[in-house]
Amino acid sequence: MTTDPKEKELSIAEQVERSLTELAEAGGLRPGRIVAIGCSTSEVQGRRIGTSGAESVAEQIYEGVARVRGKIGFEVVWQCCEHLNRALVAPRELAEARGWEIVSAVPVRRAGGSMAALAYRKLSDPCLVESVRADAGLDIGETLIGMHLRPVAVPVRPSVPWIGEARLTMAFSRPKLIGGERAVYALPDSPDAGTCD
């Protein structure tokens, strides 16, 4: 649990806003990038995942995410719980533009989770998609969002490692490095450095 008393003074929305801002900076997020959010509102309250979902907690998390998204302009998808196979709530327009597989279900607190259920109601034209390849992700309460991140995931250590009572994990993805010992990953200073003979 959090040991710094100053972290306890932050609201849940502020904890989320700070953490997501750090992730955005570390991962170079910009408009059009996809961020997957997984959240157990039960864990945020200090209870076991899947036992005590709370819309009031989901509202605060949604608010923190909205603050950062409003500044940067990335897209957000919200992961459902295992009862909906960890499908994601997404704006239908985004899902269709990206060619994501749309699936049929409406998330509710007991099948999808409070966070996904709230996000579904907040969007003007929501849908569920089976999977995505997100550029970054925020996992609040160990909800296992890794299946929806692009390879290669790079962990980011947040300055606020807890959201409420839930452990926070976050990562961004980077392109795969290809090649062997002769590969170059940044522009060389010399025009013939790294060229094949």
UniProtKB/TrEMBL annotation:
Transmembrane segments: none annotated. It comes from the Bacteria. HAMAP family: UPF0340. It comes from Cohnella zeiphila. Pfam families: DUF436. This is UPF0340 protein H7C18_19010. Belongs to the UPF0340 family.
